[in-house]
Design goal:
about 260 residues; alpha/beta
């Protein structure tokens, strides 16, 4: 009887271990640039609908901050960056589990909740009627860096210094404009498209800033996860691409 009990306990232990391993395999955490907020929520929702045993958490933030967290050991399996340079840095530092994959080219827009922006040009922002202008922090947010480039190229950067409001990332920047803490936000097109019934916007000419080439990469941790590898493949599939394109995320060179 004692021998049978030991066998039963051993079998139970194996079963619990397998359940724990399965549960770990069925959960991943994705680090994603804040411009992906609306689009990635929809992509993850579609994937989990087709894979009901899986669970994907997404942490959104400025790409530069997410890169630092991953390099310091944060438990992310995938990294979606708004600037392709950051995934390349993971590769160079031995922190990646694969090769970066391009997923989009990002675009800047001028967005306002209270001002009709459809005919506004970047140079117009020098006018006092546009009030405070929100941009993402250029130090660690790719969209903030490009916003600074665009404002400098348009010749209004210096005159706007006292009216600039800096968001920690591009999603917070959009919130500043949405709430009225800023009258205009220089934000991602994807976030403007995620607010179809609010405000108005105009594209910032792409000639004013360096291209926002965006890519994702498996981390070293993610390379060991079947779920992370499968989700990475799904993001490149036709259904996922259709969702991304709905939010303006087109591959470089793709027709608008």
């Amino acid at each position: 009887m004692k021998h049978m009990r030991l066998q039963w306990l051993f079998a139970l232990g194996l079963w619990l271990a397998s359940v724990t391993l399965w549960a770990a395999e069925a959960n991943i955490t994705v680090a994603a640039a804040a411009d992906l907020h609306h689009a990635m929520d929809d992509v993850v929702g579609a994937y989990q609908h087709d894979h009901p045993g899986s669970h994907i958490d997404v942490v959104y933030g400025a790409s530069g901050n997410l890169l630092t967290q991953i390099e310091q050991g944060a438990p992310f399996e995938l990294f979606f960056s708004a600037d392709s340079d950051y995934p390349q840095q993971l590769v160079a530092h031995g922190k990646a589990g694969g090769t970066p994959v391009p997923y989009a080219e990002g675009h800047l827009v001028l967005w306002s909740a209270s001002i009709d922006m459809r005919q506004v040009q970047v140079t117009d922002l020098a006018q006092a009627r546009f009030g405070r202008i929100a941009i993402a922090n250029p130090q660690h947010a790719p969209y903030g860096k490009r916003a600074e480039q665009a404002l400098r190229a348009a010749g209004v950067w210096d005159s706007l210094q006292s009216r600039l409001v800096f968001g920690e990332n591009i999603a917070q920047t959009a919130q500043f404009a949405q709430s009225g803490n800023a009258q205009v936000g220089v934000i991602a097109e994807s976030l403007a498209l995620g607010m179809p019934n609010q405000g108005s916007y105009v594209l910032v000419p792409a000639s004013l800033y360096q291209p926002l080439l965006q890519s994702f990469v498996l981390t070293k941790r993610g390379a060991d996860s079947a779920l992370a590898r499968d989700f990475a493949q799904y993001v490149q599939s036709a259904p996922a691409r259709a969702i991304l394109e709905r939010y303006g995320f087109r591959l470089p060179g793709a027709a608008h």
